[in-house]
């Protein structure tokens, strides 16, 4: 394969990975590294460098639409990002003192457990009341989302596209539902752990952020994925500086990956408005289990 054909192929593949990463709140980087190393035989350091750039690009491309459509919760993102960054710094400092195999194994077990709990808790807590949380009340973390699947509803109108129904007059009536955030302290603890894992293993922590917001804080799944997408861009930007200084970012490769990821992220941000919550949960759980198996194989190999 010629260099030009390889760049075109990488860009096309990254469109799909960017779309899926944006839709699930994992970031396209979750899929970029395995694709570049296994399918295209690139050095893992260069693949990670390009992946970090793709995470920032994908987050920047999808986040404005998520904020405009009312999916991402900016207050929750800012609050939790403090814990994530703190954990990432601690993880980076400990990276040279802990065994990678043990970390991969623990991470794989945690992800598998999170997937099972997401499935069980969603079934068990249907219609259950959300406990009050003083921290969430004080920080005004509660919000509303379009088609979030929350318990109580209200309606609004908009000229844009999104989840909802169109009247005979052509006006789109959106299903805007309020939700309450709970167990903020638990969410902050889980976000610190997610950041630490990200710093220790050099991987994105979106796979842990979404379960933390869904399980502990009771955010609707679409809000969790959109908010996670917003957060990983901030974390990725900090990491990108390090990889640029190390020289692990090849401009042509990073450009192709970023271009494909941006296009895919735009598609993913549009799909989130129309994909049913049940289907989104199934896709996320499958991806979470696949990542878990990959981590376990790395740890036990």
Fold and architecture overview:
- The protein is α+β, with helices and mostly antiparallel strands.
- The chain has one domain (3-130, 182-300).
- Helix content is 70%, strand content 7%.
- The protein has 11 helices and 4 strands.
- The chain has helices at 3-24, 29-39, 44-69, 74-94, 100-124, 134-139, 184-201, 206-216, 221-246, 251-272, 277-300; strands spanning 143-146, 154-158, 164-166, 172-179.
- It starts with a helix and ends with a helix.
- Residues 141-167 are annotated as: Disordered.
Secondary-structure blueprint:
Blueprint: H1 3-24, H2 29-39, H3 44-69, H4 74-94, H5 100-124, H6 134-139, E1 143-146, E2 154-158, E3 164-166, E4 172-179, H7 184-201, H8 206-216, H9 221-246, H10 251-272, H11 277-300
Antiparallel strand pairs: 1-4, 2-4, 3-4
Helix pairs in contact: 1-2, 1-9, 1-10, 2-3, 3-9, 3-10, 4-7, 4-9, 5-8, 5-11, 7-8, 8-9
Keywords: Cell membrane, Membrane, Transmembrane, Transmembrane helix, Transport
Biased composition (Low complexity): 149-167
InterPro entries: TM_pro_TauE-like, TSUP
Please tell me the total number of domains: 1
Total number of helices: 11
Structural class: alpha+beta
Q: Please state the CA-atom Rg, rounded to the nearest Å.
A: 19 Å
- Secondary-structure element string: HHHHHHEEEEHHHHH
> Overall pLDDT, averaged?
80
Largest sheet: 4 strands, antiparallel
Strand tally is: 4
Unreliable segments of 5+ consecutive residues: 150-163, 166-173
Q: Could you name the key traits of this structure?
A:
301 residues; alpha+beta; 4-stranded antiparallel β-sheet; 11 helices; 70% helix; 7% strand; globular
């Amino acid at each position: 394969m010629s260099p030009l054909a390889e760049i075109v192929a990488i860009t096309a593949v990254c469109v799909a990975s960017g779309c899926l990463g944006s839709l699930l709140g994992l970031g396209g980087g979750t899929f970029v590294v395995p694709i570049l190393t296994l399918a295209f035989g690139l050095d893992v350091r260069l693949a990670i460098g390009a992946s970090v750039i793709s995470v920032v690009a994908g987050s920047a491309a999808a986040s404005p639409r998520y904020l405009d459509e009312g999916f991402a919760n900016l207050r929750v993102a800012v609050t939790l990002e403090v814990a994530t960054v703190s954990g990432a710094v601690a993880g980076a400092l400990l990276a040279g003192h802990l065994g990678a195999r043990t970390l991969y194994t623990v991470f794989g077990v945690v992800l598998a457990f999170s997937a099972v709990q997401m499935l069980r808790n969603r079934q068990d807590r249907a219609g259950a009341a959300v406990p009050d949380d003083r921290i969430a009340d004080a920080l005004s973390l509660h919000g509303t989302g379009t088609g979030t699947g929350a318990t109580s509803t209200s309606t609004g109108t908009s000229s844009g596209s999104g989840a909802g129904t169109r009247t005979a007059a052509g006006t789109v009536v959106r299903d805007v539902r309020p939700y309450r955030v709970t167990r903020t302290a638990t969410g902050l603890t889980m976000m610190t752990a997610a950041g630490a894992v990200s710093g220790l293993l050099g991987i994105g922590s979106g796979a842990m952020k979404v379960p933390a917001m869904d399980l502990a804080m009771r955010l609707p799944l679409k809000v969790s994925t959109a908010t996670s997408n917003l957060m990983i861009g901030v974390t990725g930007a900090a990491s990108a500086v390090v990889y640029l200084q190390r020289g692990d970012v090849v401009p042509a490769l990073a450009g192709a990956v970023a271009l494909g990821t941006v296009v895919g992220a735009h598609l993913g941000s549009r799909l989130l408005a129309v994909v049913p919550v049940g289907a989104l949960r199934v896709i996320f759980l499958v991806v979470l289990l696949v990542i878990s198996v990959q981590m376990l194989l790395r740890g036990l190999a």
